[in-house]
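Listing S7. Sequence submitted for prediction.
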Amino acid sequence: MSSTQFVEHVSFVASEAFLADNALFDQLKAWLDKNGEGVFLGFDVQDPTHAHAFVLWQSFEHLINASQHPDFLPGFMTPFSALVASGLTVLHIDFDGNPTTAFSAPVTELSVVTPKEGHTQEEVNAIITQFKESAAAVPGVHTPLVWGNIRKTVEYALAAGWDSVEAHLNAVTVPPVDALAGRLFGISDVVVKHITLKKV
């Protein structure tokens, strides 16, 4: 059995109706329960109007097949459209492990990493490997961290669970994470989101 996990990350500015009643998501949950392998839903800590859904799938092919089924429009797209105000973004990520621990923590870090010109995926991977190997000694982190390519891009995603945003911010100021973070930011552009998720 493969140790990798394909995840669909959907983010968007939530509609006023969805912000007022998060239970609107329940209208598409039956379709997701039937086709997916788990869903985590939540909101951006820094911008609580920005919603995030992480859907675990058996494979990318399974997602494609499910989205081509006749029940996709009434079961998913129609109720989903009521949740979105604007800014819909979809990422397809092949993580190198199961992200459930990261998604189940009080705060989930999602960092999107793009190697800078003149630097390679291998250089970035080497730093992330060191991050992952040293993570168990970092206060406030929930291991394992998961890392993977975002399909059809040159970007990568790191998901990590934390006790709090402060625990993450503190971690990058002390050894060995401080030096690793400095190296990572030196060779790549990194966009960090902090999200509070719950399994639905």
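Caption to Listing S7: primary sequence and predicted structure tokens for the chain studied. The chain has two domains: 5-95, 100-199. The two ends are 25 Å apart (CA to CA).
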